[in-house]
Amino acid sequence: MQYDPIKKSLGKVFNTSPFSRILFYKLLDLLLLRAWHVRKEIRHWAKNLPDLNRPAGARTQASHQVAPQGAGRYILDAGSGFGQYSYFLSGLDPHWFVEAVDVKEEQIADCNNFFMKIGRKNVNFEIADLTKFSMPDKFDLILSVDVMEHIADDEAVFRNFYDSLTQDGMLLVSTPSDQGGSDVHDHEEGESFIDEHVRDGYNIDDIREKLKRAGFRKTEARFTYGTPGRAGWRLSMKYPILMLNKSKLLFILLPFYYIVAYPIAFICNMLDTGMQHKTGTGLMVKAWK
Length: 289
Known about the structure:
Blueprint: H1 4-13, H2 18-31, H3 33-47, E1 73-78, H4 84-92, E2 96-102, H5 105-117, E3 123-127, E4 139-145, H6 154-164, E5 165-176, H7 204-214, E6 218-224, H8 227-246, H9 254-274, E7 282-288
Parallel strand pairs: 1-2, 1-4, 2-3, 4-5
Antiparallel strand pairs: 5-7, 6-7
Helix pairs in contact: 3-9, 6-7, 8-9
């Protein structure tokens, strides 16, 4: 199934005003289980940050914008998409400067326009190819959410991530696993639910090995989308997407669908983020330089 056209249509619907875009971000945060896991990991990272005596007002190498005054942290949103994670990160601390990159020109333009309108000056969006993007020793955190499964030359990206991190900086990756990520096992001939993926998912040991080959000294990986998460994902994402793929007119029925389905999906998401899973269709991977 082609996922990008549906995402593009939804983006247009919610891009009419800053209020509607913020509402869109809030809906994504509620509906996407990966967003629950990512926000949990980011809060844990922020809670355990050591004191930093980096000079204030340092300029970014890519945008030449001045970072906010204070003990600034530099974060790369690698594959920023709609910008919902950049919005979340930049709102947690005004001293964090977020460099957000993506290959899609339209989304970059929309995000820059939105963040300018809301006066969020500690974020910058730029077009970039992650297989070529590197800013040595720049970022304290690199976030990559549902991106690596779209990139064939993933090891080149991991090397660039390693080069771009500061010493002791952390990489956080959310991606499908090979245990049925994108519901691949539910389709004939092993096809993924999302056609745009170049791989159906990562083996948990293989991705850790690739990160070690890229230079990372320490890696951790855990499964997400266990039994409750898979049930919640189907209710909150898969079935509505299948509906919209048949006809965009069904968009008007979504509010009524979610009134019934979302309370169950919400409970499933809560259970999934609070449990340790022996297996799952998603992976949350952390690596340190």
